[in-house]
């Protein structure tokens, strides 16, 4: 992803997880069992930390979290527990919706804008970028943190975060 088309958003910062030297993302208090939530929080922090010096944060920064399958590890754990007649811990109800971690990212970083979670059926980047374009165009946000995350079975997953803002259409 590069600078947007005329009137579109500009990439202010970008990060991925993993990058060379990365292990597992740091644990995230209040979230259990799954690497999904720590991965979202780690890549979001990394991206926001890469905001260019002298670029002030927007007044309304949206968080747009995009994942076709969401938190697979937690969903599979809950499915197995229910199928086996075991008790499901209360934290799984909290973390079962992706906006719990998106809201935590917004709160931790003082982002005051909409929080949107998408599960696209097509291209995740295109769906997320279209949502960001809409939020910026409608004035709901003046920048957006777009986080794309997917988990493969039996793997911690990968994530990309892009901070988008500016653009000539704003």
Automatic annotation (TrEMBL):
Lineage top rank: taxon: Bacteria
Domain Beta-ketoacyl synthase-like N-terminal intervals: 58-154
GO molecular function, one term: acyltransferase activity
Pfam families in the cross-refs: Ketoacyl-synt_2
Cross-referenced InterPro entries: Ketoacyl_synth_N (IPR014030), Thiolase-like (IPR016039)
Full protein name: Beta-ketoacyl synthase, N-terminal domain
Species of origin: Micromonospora mirobrigensis
């Amino acid at each position: 992803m590069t600078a947007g088309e005329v009137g579109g958003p500009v990439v202010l910062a970008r990060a991925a997880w993993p990058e060379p030297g990365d292990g597992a993302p740091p644990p995230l208090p209040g979230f259990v069992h799954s690497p999904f939530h720590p991965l979202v929080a780690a890549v979001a922090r990394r991206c926001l930390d890469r905001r260019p010096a002298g670029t002030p944060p927007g007044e309304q920064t949206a968080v747009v979290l995009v994942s076709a399958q969401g938190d697979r590890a937690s969903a599979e754990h809950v499915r197995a527990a229910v199928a086996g007649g075991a008790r499901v811990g209360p934290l799984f109800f909290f973390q079962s919706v992706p906006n719990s971690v998106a809201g935590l990212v917004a709160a931790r970083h003082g982002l005051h804008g909409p929080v949107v979670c998408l599960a696209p059926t097509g291209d995740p980047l295109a769906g997320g970028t279209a949502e960001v374009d809409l939020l910026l165009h409608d004035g709901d946000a003046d920048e957006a943190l777009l986080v794309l995350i997917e988990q493969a079975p039996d793997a911690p997953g990968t994530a990309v975060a892009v901070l988008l803002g500016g653009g000539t259409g704003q």
